[in-house]
Structures are given as C-alpha cells and as structure tokens.
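We emphasize that the prediction below concerns an isolated chain of 330 residues; any contacts that depend on oligomerization or on bound cofactors are therefore not represented. The input was used exactly as deposited, without trimming of termini.
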Amino acid sequence: MAREPRLRRWLRRAVSVCTVLLAVVTTASLVFNAFTAGRAAPPKGLRYVQAADVRTRYRTWGTSGSPVVLVHGAFEQADTWSRLAPLLARDHRVYALDLTGDGYSERRGPYTVDHFTRQLLGFLGALHLGGPGERPLLVGHSSGAAVVTEAALRAPGRIGGVMLLDGDALDTGAGPPSALKYVLIDPYRTSLLRLGLGSDWLIRSFYDTQCGPACPRLDAAGVDEWRRPLRVPGAEAALWDMLGQGVPGLPADQVARLAAVRIPKSVVFGAQDDVFSEQTPQQTARRVGAPPPTLVPRARHLTMISSPREVAAAVEALADTRATARRRSR
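Result of the prediction step, given as a token string:
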C-alpha cells in the first residue's frame, strides 16, 4: 500500500520537472527567435519578370541558339544550374527561374505542381518562348521533373522537348512524416530551423551527401548561396507549407500520358543517386516513352553540379533529336 503514494509522489515530481523544463525551453526559444528575427536581403542586381501570378526571379546565359529552360527541384534555385548553364550557353540561350517557395521569387502558395506549372508556362509567355522556332527544351531536376512533365502535357505545342533529370515526376508521398507537424510547432520549429541554417557544417554535410565527392567543396560564398534564400522574408512560412505537403509530384497514370506527346524526351540520372531505386531510371524512361536512360557515372542526386559536362552532352543529344525530327517533318 505504501508503494502507491510513493509512485504518485514520483509522478507528481516528474510532471513538475517536465513542466519547468518545457517553460524554460519555450522561454529560451522565444528569446532566441526574437533575437534572430531579422531577415536577409536578396542579393543585388537580380532580374525579375511577372510569370502568371508570381513575380519571378530568373537568370539567363547565352545570346544565340535554340532556348533551353532549366527548372530546379525542391529547396533549390536558379543558381543551382550555374555550372551547367555556361556549357549549354555555347550553343543555346539558357534560362533558369526560381519556382515560388524557393530562391528569390515571390512566395505565393499553394506550392503544388499545378501552381508551379502555371508559373512556368507564364514565364515562357513573358519571355516570348514557345512560338514557332522558339519552343524550348525543358530540363526538370528532381521534383522539377513533375513540373516540366505537366507543362508538356498542358501545352505540348509550346514545348520542344523534355528531360527528366534525377526525377521520376511521381507523387511518391516523399517528405517528412505527418507526425512531425505535431512536434515541429512554433516556437520550436523556428528555433531549430534557424540553428540549422546557422551551421556551415550542417549545410556542407547535406550538400556533400546529395552531391558526392565529384562536386566542388562549398566555400563561404557557396554556403551563403544555399542558406540565404531560406532567410529572406516569407521563406520560413513557405518552407513549413511545402514540408507539410511533401515533395510535389504527379500520379503515375498522369506521368504515363507523356508517352503519347510527340516531342523528344530523355531521362538522365546519377548512377549512384540513392534518392531513388536502381530500377527507377529504366522504369521512368519506359513510362514516358523515352529512349533508355542515360546514367552518369559516379554521380549522385545533383548531377548538374557534379557532372555538368555529361549532363550538357545529354541535353545536346536531346536537342539534336529535336532538330532531326523537325527536318523530317518538313
């Protein structure tokens, strides 16, 4: 009988200790958030255009040749293409945009494939791409593969070809487990994000894991390139919205409709991309009606950074396929 009162006393003490700890952690989190509330400014000299309902930041390379439009994946931006784009610019006019929610474009939800696609098609219209002789090749990396796939399905007459780069375009349900929304609540999630972004080591570790040993090491400017977009006004709220929805993608039957679209297609993956299974590149190529996939040796998920020459060669091969098809159709 004496054990029951003793157990109750221990439980009350445990509850009291947990309550005090929670109050201390919450107070510390609120104070930390208040002291780190200042937001970063975007770099100077950025270029913008109104694309559908989004004020869209973009970059260009090259002044002649057929157009190529580069569409990044989740938590990337136009600058992610800065090793590949100059190689393509030798023979093409190259464009890269920041999809809303990432980079320095206006944050405007919802952060879905539908909205990203409307922004992309609006971008093509704003830059007068998509007409006769101006139909661009679209290269979509990772989740950007879903965006270029949907754009080709909606406006096949405006698209010259599609490359799925390290992406299967599928809605796989990938993303943080739903239980995290009950754990990552404010003020704690804000504190955790800001602490993580403040760690150069953590940013470099994530980059190294995704990019592999063939990638150049991130210097201070490189770390800032990945970190700053997540510190501009509106970035934190957009990040939590995107994490809550998971990685954007399309149903398999929707992706398979691309096989019936008569434009050149290609699938390119890093041979050591562990985000997907070994079978994914072949399955994706069959699904969309593309030739056998190109596998880039020793590359992981960020092939445009680790292997820009190999990716550029694959884009050129796709451009040649388009040029051949155009000559035959005359």
